[in-house]
Design goal:
- With 995 residues, this protein is an alpha+beta fold.
- The protein is 42% helix and 17% strand.
- It contains 26 helices and 34 strands.
- The strands form eleven sheets. Strands 3, 25, 26, 27, 28 and 29 form a six-stranded mixed beta sheet that branches. Strands 18, 19, 20, 23 and 24 form a five-stranded antiparallel beta sheet that branches. Strands 30, 31, 32, 33 and 34 form a five-stranded antiparallel beta sheet that branches.
- Strand 28 and strand 29 form a beta hairpin.
Amino acid sequence: MRSSPLPRMSRRGRVTIGVLIGVFVLFTLLGWGVNAWTDWLWFDEVRYTQVFTGVLATRLLLFLVVGVGMALVIAGNLWLAYRVRPRMRPHSAEQATLERYRMLLSPRLGTWIALVSAVVGLFAGLSAQTRWSQWLLFRNGGDFGVKDPEFGVDVGFYVFQLPFWRYVLGVGFTAVVLALLGALAVHYVFGGVRLQGVGDRMTNAARAHLSSLVAVFVLLKAVAYVLDRRAMLLEYNEGTKLYGAGYADVNALLPAKEILAWISILVALAIIVFSNAVMRNLVWPGISLALLGVSAVAIGGIYPWAVQTFEVKPSARDKEARYIERSIAATRSAFSLEGTKTTGYAASNLVPPASLATDTSVVPNVRLLDPQLVSETYTQLQQVRGFYDFGSKLDIDRYSVKEKTSDYVVGVREINYGELTDQQSNWINRHTVYTHGYGLVAAPANQVVCGGQPFFVSGFLGEKAQEACSAPSEEIPAQQPRIYYGERMEADDYAIVGQDGDRNVEFDRPTQTGGEQYYTYSGEGGVKIGSFPRRLLYSIKEQEPNFLLSEAVNENSKLLYVRNPRDRVEKVAPFLTLDGDPYPAVVNGRVLWIIDGYTTAATYPYADRVNLQAETADELTGRGTFQLARENVNYIRNSVKATVDAYDGTVKLYSYDDTDPVLKAWNKAFGGDLVLPKGDIPAELAAHFRYPADLFKVQRNLLTKFHVTDPGDFYSGQDFWQVPNVPDAPDSGQRQPPYYLFTQFPGQEGPRFQLTSAVTPNGRQNLAALVSGSYVDGQPRLEVLELPDQTRISGPTQVHQQMTNNGDIRQQLNLLSSNQAQVQYGNLLSLPFADGMLYVEPVYVKSSSQDAYPLLQKVLLSYGDGGSYVVLANNLGDGIKQLVEQGKQAGSGNPPPSNDDDNNPPPSGGDNNTPPPLTGELADAAGKVQSAIAEVKAAQASGDFERYGRALKALDEAMTAFQQAQAAAKGSAAPAGSASPSAPASPAPSVSPSG
């Protein structure tokens, strides 16, 4: 009997290894089982089990089909290689060395083949199950009704079919390569392929087997060339800096791919024929493969390069015009830019009109509260307990109160588990006592009281407000104000609710008498964990024995988890890309979180491709808004409006774009009723929908280039725009965030709640256009107010610098920041008004003392080109009056009372007579003023803000010296035409309600 070449393991060793493997498998399967079971219970709670079963079934199907298929291909080829092994092998040192491996493999060859095939199949199946979304779209996708401009193929093929076909092709290549390598190894070990000895180096059977695999590989390459022809419409064109096939691709590379596909088929046939039927050697098959490689380099590489270099580059503007036009049209269609309404806006009025003081559509609705800055104010004034929190940024919404619609700054008073004290943070308190927040707190965005505080109108902890600076009663009442689901919730912030008996243990809110009120959750949400199996299940999941040991968990207990609204919607609809800024609203007496959901694709032919994370990043990213994932897309639709009830966690998905083919495919994949139709949206809920911020950022950024529709102008890039940086921190490199306003722009029939952003010419800082997004009759609308190319109107960064560097304003700002206080600037709003531009920027002051919060103390206003008419007022009303007064003075022939670059120092008299010649010290002072004005003009033209600030300061000093000399010469006070727009104010004056 032939002995085994390896020593046998002892029985004890085999038992030990078996036990270790069994324990590992047990715990692995236990973890998977617990997660799957608890996921099912969660999906059953939210009534979206079709998502759980649909995704799970699809993953299992792909795992089994691809895994088993790959394993069978590998196993079949390994077995075939062994089956056709030569019975007699010539004697050689090589064969003698391989004999020991043959002795090892032969007794259990079937086991070895099964093991290798199973490992390969396992990894292939694991990879395949991650492609569940591609498969579901492949199965359920339809037509877009739009054909690509080159082949006339419906866009649905590129979005739904092409990605999965390319994956299948990749699986085919992998299977053939692994089978070829495995078969070659088996042939070598068992003598079918030899490196030494006399005779042929390869048996006929081995040659037929291996050459057939090579031929299949080459045939797959032919299929790849065919798919590459379609995929060329998705590739980046270096010549045009756009996506989609260009002139050289269409006229050189496209026919080259077709030729290479036919050559590949011929090479595959040549390999089979010459290897097995004619010459029965590998010389001609090798030559065929070499010719294929040479053809690929020459036809697919050198020829297109030559066309691009010698034909396209010398006249790229004309050659690429047709393909640039394709990219422009596709991008505007894929990102919903084709319906953008562009209106010219001359902005020729540089003088504040008198109508500013009587306006009822723009000025009364100017938003003064900055949702980022006043978050600290909300927290300090409405916190009541240290563990309540409003987050680092609040939200903007609009409500109709007392038959008047206005925008409000809203925030939810949530539990912040990170702020619990050590005593409060034990397991009982954290998960059974401190379970929820309370109330949606709102304040009108255009009104401040009590020295700069918001005027709170809702979210009170009692029946009536306790502060004199708040409304006497709830103006936005919520019948159920408790917040169990919110943005402050982390993954491990679960709550156990439901008590045995009448005793309430959940902290609800403080009472007016100084006590505390407790509550018991009565909502429908939550997973029941009253039974022992459920408690054991979640004890294993959370690795927490208190689920079994604590008396706080009883037969009526429910477990609330996945409590962040964004995470909740993402789990229910994993195919959606969610906006980074969910916002709360009171709808029919309940607090709902509203989240915008996007359907996306990355294979829309000729459309420009953007990275969502990069395109949506700005100053607020990570500070109150979630950062989007690094997802490259070239198609996006705001197809879904999702809501999450802040009390019971109910999730609803509403279709907002019934025409979106991607949403139709996903809805069909999950039974057809996953997303509710648009007609089911309650009217009160629809009244709170707003244009989504992240979609607007993507569209705005694309419009900086794709507002140009002429191919020649697009190629030159001279009319491109850019998004300005944050006005008060231009060197930070962060983009200015868009801002929500309830206002009326030129051409609009009335005030709208719209998202707005200013853009500037590429490489310059003057204003180029205003982009706004809003809903009109339930449909999204993008609008652009485009200024003339040579406009004098300054952009946001310039305006901020001009306003804050004004000499007198600089002094007042320095007073505000004295005594250990910090000046903070709110949103700089760009408002078109009366054929001119009105800029408004609130000024906050925050003391350096502990627990200090920002208070709105001043308002900066500018009209015209940004520097001629500037005021710093105590409130918006006073500022408007001062601007109007400056406009009247300009109309009467007097220069505006500001440091205007285009005006000389004001004369001593109030009439229009020619002033007498100046002499002595007065003439010297006037000369210094003239020199200072010249330096201001030069600094402004240079674009150097530091120099501009120094020049303004020098001008202010020269003006002061001139006024002193004038007073000394005439024995009178300084003239009325002072360079100061307003008298210096006290460091912290109170600001009265405005608007």
